[in-house]
Amino acid sequence: MGYPVKVQLPEDAPMMCGPFLQGVGRSMLRLSGWTLEGRVPNDKKILLIAAPHTSNWDWIIGVGGLLALGIKLTYIAKHSLFKGPVGWMMRVTGGVPIDRGSAQGMVDEIVDQFSKNERLYYLIAPEGTRKQVERWKSGFLRVAYKAEVPILMVSFDYRTKCILIGETAVLTGEIDTDLAAVQNYYQQFQGKNHNS
Fold first, then answer.
1. Which residues lie across from 39 on neighbouring strands?
2. Which end of the chain has fewer CB atoms within 10 angstroms, the N or the C?
3. Which 3 state secondary structure label does DSSP give 98?
4. Which residues touch 23 (CB under 8 Å, ≥6 apart)?
5. Radius of gyration for the chain, computed over Cα atoms and rounded to the nearest angstrom
6. CA-CA distance, 42 to 152, in Å (whole number)?
């Protein structure tokens, strides 16, 4: 794929859209000055995490990147966002509404989705909010442990205007250690409104 997308995808990656919508996504990125770089590993099941998440602009830029790649993934978002044209676009691009007041079973629900699907890319924003937090929610790690899937770290860096599909997290199985390591990785990236 040409500029602004420099990403290696597996040949059998699950695809959501064809060349027309990929062109729309590339245009969205080009017009906003963003690039998309990195490599998606060959694993059939991947838990992607995206950070820093400090602004609603992250979703708009992310949709441009998602369309530009054309890959099919599932992501969760606050149920109140699923209204009108924005809600329609969120559903079309793989969004699943959640009620944060009753999100206790979310880890098991996502693990169940991994077990039911032969191939699944699932995206979570581990900060759980656009506000700055010292310690991220650890649910994404519990999903990875229970579903036995790799965590692929995706960043939104407003300093370089790059969505980077970065490293696969090295997990020890110890939540505090792994959470600290993942959060430390993201310190190099700058969110729109503050550093993660």
1. 8
2. N
3. strand
4. none
5. 16
6. 11
What are the CA-CA distances from residue 13 to residues 17, 27, 45, 100, 137 (Å)?
Answer: 12, 22, 10, 30, 29
Whether the CB-CB separation of 51 and 99 falls below 8 Å is answered with no
Give the count of beta carbons closer than 10 Å to the beta carbon of residue 167: 14
**pTM for the predicted model, two decimal places:** 0.86
- Distance CA(128)–CA(130), nearest Å, equals 7
Written as tens digits, the pLDDT of the chain (196 aa) is 446 899 999 999 999 888 898 999 999 999 999 999 999 999 999 999 999 987 878 888 998 999 999 999 998 777 777 888 878 888 888 888 876 655 558 899 899 999 999 999 999 988 755 455 567 889 999 999 999 999 999 999 999 999 999 999 999 999 999 999 999 999 999 888 764 4
